[in-house]
């Protein structure tokens, strides 16, 4: 049996009037994240953590932000592609832990739906996806509401 760990970190700017895609769902807010894709920072860190665990580079390597085919893409499709890459190599996901750094709005009310949506995309159990949130106490770019950041760690395994 092989067990490997992975870690992901990402940041996106917040801009007024954009849809705010986070954890696979649209969160009601005055601002949304800016990116080449739908800028779903939680999905991006999960992708990076999974790719890192399998030593498969990162999200921008597989889905470059210079490629027009990914313009505005639903990040759930990128996550699905990452899961395919892992499963082709025999890996299954044991669990994910993540933290979203966001001054507002509150993420807590949306976490059960995010878990449902992400579990369906990844083909794993909701209980294996932990999502947490924190403000940065009004400090830094998150505190000024200029951006959203996220971190994720994962455990993957094969040969059980
Ligand atoms: N965007 C956020 C930020 C935080 N939470 C929840 O509030 C708790 C307190 O936040 P602090 O930054 O003061 O530690 C935090 O532990 C989360 O449960 C949230 O839901 N959405
Ligand atoms: C997801 C991709 C691809 O559309 O674009 P962005 O939404 O800009 O996201 P980022 O995390 O900056 O980099 C990965 C990119 O390749």
Characterization of the model:
With 160 residues, the chain is α+β, with helices and mostly antiparallel strands. It has a single domain, classed as 2-C-methyl-D-erythritol 2,4-cyclodiphosphate synthase (60s Ribosomal Protein L30, Chain: A, 2-Layer Sandwich). The protein has helices at residues 41-53, 59-62, 75-88, 111-122, 140-143; strands spanning 2-16, 21-22, 25-26, 31-33, 92-101, 129-134, 147-158. Helix 1 (41-53) packs parallel to helix 3. The protein is globular. The protein starts with a strand and ends with a strand. 2C-methyl-D-erythritol 2,4-cyclodiphosphate binds at residues 10, 35-37, 39, 44, 59-60, 63-65, 70, 73. 2C-methyl-D-erythritol 2,4-cyclodiphosphate (CDI) binds next to helix 2. Residues 3-156 form the 2-C-methyl-D-erythritol 2,4-cyclodiphosphate synthase domain.
Give a summary of the structure in a few sentences.
This protein has helices at 41-53, 59-62, 75-88, 111-122, 140-143, and strands spanning 2-16, 21-22, 25-26, 31-33, 92-101, 129-134, 147-158. It is of the alpha+beta class and 160 residues long.
Order of strands across the main sheet: 4-1-7-5-6
Overall average pLDDT: 98
CATH architecture: 2-Layer Sandwich
Strand content: 25-35%
Structural class: alpha+beta
Radius of gyration: 15 Å
The major β-sheet equals: 5 strands, mixed
Provide the CATH top-level class. Answer: Alpha Beta
What would the CATH topology be? 60s Ribosomal Protein L30, Chain: A
- Helix count from the secondary structure assignment: 5
Bound molecules: the ligand Nc1ccn([C@@H]2O[C@H](COP(=O)(O)O)[C@@H](O)[C@H]2O)c(=O)n1, 2C-methyl-D-erythritol 2,4-cyclodiphosphate
- What is the succession of H and E elements? EEEEHHHEHEHE
Number of DSSP-assigned strands: 7
How far apart, in Å, are the first and last alpha carbons? Answer: 5 Å
Globular, elongated, flat, extended or rod-shaped: what is the shape?
globular
Overall number of domains:
1
Low-confidence stretches: none
Helical content band: 25-40%
CATH superfamily: 2-C-methyl-D-erythritol 2,4-cyclodiphosphate synthase
């Amino acid at each position: 049996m092989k067990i490997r760990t992975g870690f992901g970190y990402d940041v996106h700017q917040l801009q007024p009037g954009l849809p705010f895609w986070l954890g696979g769902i649209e969160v009601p807010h005055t601002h949304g994240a800016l990116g080449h894709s739908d800028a779903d920072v939680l999905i991006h860190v999960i992708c990076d953590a999974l790719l890192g665990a399998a030593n498969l580079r990162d999200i921008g390597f597989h889905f470059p932000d210079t490629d027009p085919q990914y313009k505005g893409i639903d990040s759930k499709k990128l996550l699905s592609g990452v899961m395919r890459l892992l499963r082709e190599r025999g890996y299954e996901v044991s669990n994910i832990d993540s933290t979203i750094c966001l001054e507002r709005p509150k993420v807590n009310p949306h976490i059960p739906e995010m878990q449902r949506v992400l579990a369906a995309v990844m083909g794993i159990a909701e209980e294996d996806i932990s999502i947490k949130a924190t403000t940065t106490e009004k400090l830094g770019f998150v505190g000024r509401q200029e951006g959203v950041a996220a971190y994720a760690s994962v455990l993957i395994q094969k040969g059980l």
